[in-house]
Amino acid sequence: MKQQYKIEFVTCHRIPERSFFYKGKQFPVCARCTGIYIGYIAIFIFAITLTYIPLLWSFALLLPALIDGLTQAYCHRESNNILRLITGIMLGIGISSLGAIFAEIISNLIIHFLKN
Fold it and tell me: Which pLDDT score, from 0 to 100, does residue 56 have?
C-alpha cells in the first residue's frame, strides 16, 4: 500500500471556499496564507540588499489584511480569494520588512555593546 504524506499547517484554517485549487487539489493553506508565504520571500531581498521598507510603511502594509480579516469576522462581509491573496502578500512583505528592521537594530546594539 502506498503511503501518503500530508503537509500540515496548524495556523491555517484551510477552509476550502477560502483556498485555491490546482488540478482539483486544494492548496495546503488558504488564499491569505498563500499570499503571506509569497510575501515572506521579500526577507531574502531585504537580507541580500541590506535594505528595508521604512518602519511606518512596514506597519501600513499590515493594515489591509487586518482590515479585510476583521471586517469579514465582525461586519458579516465576505472577501474573495484574490483580495485575500493580495492582502496576504502585503502582510508577508510588511512582516519581512519589520524583521529586517528589528534585525538591524539588534545587530547594531550587539556591535555597540561589543565595542564598549
Answer: 96
Residue 4 covered by a domain: no
Structural domain count, the chain: 1
Reading the block at residue 64, the C-alpha cell is 489591509
Helix (H) / strand (E) containing 21:
strand 21-22
Q: State if pTM tops 0.85.
A: no
How far is C-alpha 86 from the geometric centre of its chain's CA atoms? Answer: 10
Residue 9 has pLDDT above 60, yes or no: no
**What is d(CA 42, CA 52) in angstroms, rounded to the nearest whole number?**
9
CA dist list (Å): 9 to 13, 24, 28, 37 = 8, 20, 7, 12
Q: Average pLDDT for residues 80-86, to the nearest whole number?
A: 96
Q: Which residues span the domain enclosing 71?
A: 32-115
